[in-house]
User: What shape does this take?
Amino acid sequence: MKGLIVVDVQQDFCPGGSLATGDGDKIIPVINKLMDKFGFVLASKDWHPEKTVHFEKWPVHCVRGTTGADFHKALQSEKITEVALKGTGNSDDGYNAFEATNLDVNHQLHRKGIDEVYVCGIATEYCVKATALAARQAGFKTFLVTDAISAVESKPGDAEEALKAMKENGIALVKSGEI
Ligand code: VGL
Ligand code: ZN
Assistant: This one.
């Protein structure tokens, strides 16, 4: 059985937000269509406290309860089965959705009989990568949906390097049309 993880499609990671990717909003129509192909859709949210060591590395973003932490308005959130909140502590980054503190993601996936995990969302080289690697590590057959991801790319080549690292770790790259 396959399951979809939609990583951090939140206002602050989209154009106009405090940690915007160039085209975070452009992948949303693709994700909306993609969600129709899955019976189980888990969406993660970066959900930080006001004070956290994470903000020593990053501009303040996705503070829990603020509009910046909302799902992007264009995301059809009624298609989401479970919301996983991560980065909720004040002493860690919480890059991967399996670190969610409101629910046990690994357990939820197993409970639904899921053995294939598809990952999409934002940002390619941080939370998407960390989530895909964690899924693989947890023993799931893992796929990255390459037309449904968006990168911060603070350094040119970061996204490319992330794709390479994921491939090397046994994650298969697929296009949404192939699913
Ligand atoms: C993310 C940087 C900081 C992400 C979260 O969602 O990829 N990136 N916090
Ligand atoms: Zn963050």
